[in-house]
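User: Modeling request: complex.
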Amino acid sequence: MNRLPTTALLVLRSLFVLCTAALLAAVLLSCGSSSATIANNQIASHRIALVAPVHSAEQAEAMRIGAEAAARQFGLELNYAPFESNEDAAEQLAAAIALLEQGAEALLIAPADEETLRAVGQYGTDRGIPVIALNDERMPRGVGGAIAIDNEEAGRQAGKALAELLDGKGNVALLKPDRNDPGLVLREQGILEALSKYPSIQVKEGSVCGNLRDACWVAAKSMLDNERLDGAIALQSVASLGLADEVRRRSEAEQFKLVAFGSEREQLELLQEGVIHQLVVQSDFSTGYIGVEQAVSLLAGGVIGKPTLLETRVVDADNMFWMNNQKLLFPFVH
Amino acid sequence: MKAVWNNMTGWARRDRGWLLNWSIKSIILWALLAFILVIVIMVALLLYGKFSRAAEKNITLSMQQIVDSVGYNLADYADGTAQLYRAIEKHMLAEGEWSNTEVTKQLDIIMSSRDDIVSIALFNEQGELLRNYPEAPFSDNARVTEQSWFHSALRVSNHLSFSLPHVQNLYGSPYKWVVSMSKGITVQHNGEPMYVVLLVDINFKKIDELSSRVSLGKRGYVYIIDEGAGNIVFHPQQQLIYMGLRNESVEKALVSQVSYIDNVSGSKRLNTVKSIDNIGWKVVGVSYLDEVMTTREELSRYIVQVVGVVLVLAFLISVPLASMLTRPIRQMGEKMKSVERGDFEVMLPLKGPLEVVQLSSRFNLMVEKIRGLMHQNIMEQESKRKYELEALQAQINPHFLYNTLNSVVRMIGMSKKEETITMITSLSRLFRISLSKGRRTIKVSEELEHARHYLTIQQMRYKRKFDFRIEAEQEALNGYTLKLVLQPLIENAIIHGIEYLVDDGMITVSARLEADALIMEVADNGVGMTKGQLDELFRKPQQSNAPMQAGNGGSGVAVRNVHDRICLYYGHSYGLSYESEREEGTTARIRLPFIQREEEEGGYE
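Assistant: Request completed. Predicted assembly structure:
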C-alpha cells in the first residue's frame, strides 16, 4: 500500500530537483548570452551605406555630413561611395551593389535614374535590405523610403521669385533637363502654376540639356537666340551654369533675370556677382540626416510608406549671409 | 462541533502529510537555498541601489567635468586670440601708420606664427577699407557696414568683441567660416584723431573641431550658444535646426547656471551648462539619461549573474551538507527496516549529534521492550495451551472416572436400572459437552448443562448427600463462556463444602447479567473456608509443571487453573472470586465479559 506513493514521491522529488537545476542553468546561460549581446551591441553596430548622387560633388558632400551626423547620433557605421564627375548611372549601380555585398544593412542612394533605383530596390528586396531613395520621390518595389524636396512648392517659389524680379511682366523661358524625372516634372508644373498668376508674363519655348555644362550653354544660346527673353529659370544646377555663361557672354546680367535651383559654390559666386538673381536652395544635410533616421526606423521594423518632402528656401545676394542661410549654403567649416 | 474537529484533524493530517512528503534532506537543502537566496538578493538590491546611485553621480560629475573642460579650452583659446589681437593692434596702430613695410613685416611674423588667422583688415568709420592683410581683392558685395562685427565695434568703443561664427564674405571664394574679433579705436593718423575699426577673422574650424569631437556617451553632444541673444554658435545639427527639423530649447540653457534635465521626444536628457565669460558664450553638454540607464541595466545583469553563480554554488554545497546531516537518520531508517523484517537483535550505535544519540538509545530501548513483549507473548501462549490441557485432563480425571464407573457397577449390582441409565447418560453428555468439537468457548446454556450432568453424577455417587439447583436469566443463557469453568468449582464445593457436612447439602449454580458482565456462581451451604484456605486456593503452585494430582489436592490446582484461564482470555479485570463464611457456605463467583458470539478459534489448535 505504501509502495506506490513512495516511488511516485521519489520521482516527483527528483523531477523537482532536476527542474530547479535546469532553471539555474538557464538563468546562468541567459546571463552569459545577454552579456554577449551587450558586447556585440557595443562592438558591431549597424552598417549603413550611402551612395552619393552623380555629377554633384558638393551636394554629395553635404549629404554625407548630414548622414554622418545622424550615424554618430544613432551609433551606426556609415559607408560612403562618392563619384567622379565622369561617372554615371552604371558606376553608381555597381558601387551600390558592392556596398551591399560588403554587408551594409541599409542603403541610402541618390539615384542617377529610375533604372538604377529599381535595380537597387530589387536587390534590396531579394536580401531583405531596406533601401531609401534620396532626392527622389519615386518608391519602386524594394524602396522603403524616399526623401526629396517638395518640387512643386520649390517650382512655385522659383516662378514667384522670377515674376517678382520682372515686376510681373516680360517674356520668360525654362531650361529643362533632357531626362524624364517626375520630380523635375513637378518642379516645372510648380513654376508654370506660379507664373500663370501673372498675366503679363509670357512663357516662351524653352530648351533642353543634359548633365554637361557646355551642352547647356549651347542650349541656352539657342534659346536666347530664338526669343527675346527677360528672364529664365534653369531647373538644374548644371543648366543654370550654362545659362549663366551665355548671359555673361552677352553681358546682359543686369537686365536678364536668372532664377536657378541648387547651392553649388559656383552658383553662389554667380549669385554674388549678380548673374544669378535668386537661388532655390535645398538642405542636402537634412536629406542625408533624415535618410539615416529613416533607415534606422526601417531596420527597427518600421514602415514609412510615402516620400518625405523637405522645404526649400529662396536665397538672393542680400540674404545669403544671413545667419539662417549661411549654414545651408556653406555647410562645411574649413 | 464534531464536524469542525474532524475537519481540523483532517487539516492536521494533511499538513503533516505535506511535511512528511519532504525528506529532511530536502527541507535542509531548500531551506538553506532559500535562506541564501534571500540574503544574496537583499545584498544584491542594496549593492545595486548603491552602485547605480554612485554610477549616476559619477556620470553627472564626469559630464560636468567634460563640459567644464570644453569651456576652459574655449576660454583659453579666446584669451589666446584676444592676446593675438592686442599684439596685432599694437604693431599696426601704435604709430598711427599702417601702410609701411615695417608693419607688413610685423604682420608677416604674427601670421606665420598662427595658422588660424584668416585675415586682418582695418576700416574707417564709414566702413571703407584702409588696409588688409593678406592683400586680396576686396569683394564689392561685402557690405561692411551691415556686418554685425562692424556694428559692435562702433557701438562700444575700445572694447574687443567676438562675433558669432559666420561665413567670411569680404574676399569671395573660399568662403571660410570665421569668428570676427573687432574693436573701434581712436588713433592719431597724420596728426589727426581718427576712429578706425580693426577686424581680425579667426578660423572657426578650431572651435568647431573642439566642440564636435566632444562626445558625451553614445548620443550625447555639446552645443554652444551666445549668452546675449541665445543664438546658436555651434550645434552638430545646426542645419536641421535652421530648417526647422529639430528644436533645441536654448531658453533653459540661457538662464541655467549648472545643469538641468529636460525631456525631448520621450527621452530624458541631462544638460550641463558652462559659461565662457571672456567671449560671452555658453557651452551646453547634452547627454541622454537612458544611456545611464543602460549602465544600470548592465549592473543589474551583472548582479543577476552573481546571484545565479552564488545560487549554484550554494546548491552544490548544500547537497552534500544536507546528505551529511541526514546520514545518521538514514542509517536509523535502515536499522528500522531490518527490525521490520523481524530482526530484533539490531542495536543502533550511540554516536553522532545529540538528537541522533537520544533517538538511537530510545530506539534501542524500544526494540528491547518489543523483544520482552514478544517473549512474554510466547510465554502466555504456552501457558494457555498448558491450562487447556490441564482442564481437559481434569475432565477425564481417572479418579473421577473410576469412582463413577464404580458407582455404575454398584448400581447395576443393585439392579438400579433407571439410575444406571441416568448416570451413564449424564456421563456421556458430560464428555460430549467437554469435547464440544474442540471449541474453546461454549454457550452459557451448554456450560450449565455440563454442570447439571456433573452434579447429577456426583449426586448419585454421594448417595444424594446434597441437592442442587441451577438458575439462569434468559439473556445470560445466550452468552458465551470458556468451557469447563464451572466443573472445578462444583468439584471444589462438593469436596470442601458438602463432603464433611452433616446435613444435606445444597449447591446452587446460577448465571446472570450484571452491567455488561456475565456472572456465574457456584454456591454451597457447606462448612465454608477459612481465609487461609481461600488464599491457598489462589496461591500459585510451586511447580507450574506439576500435573494435577488426583483426589483432594487436585481440585485446588483446577480452581486456580480456572482463574488463570479467564484472566488470560479476557484480561485481568475478569476472573474468579470466592466468598466464604464458616458454617454458612461458600460462593465461587466467575465474572466474564458478556459476549454473544462465539469466539474465534485460536491459531495454535
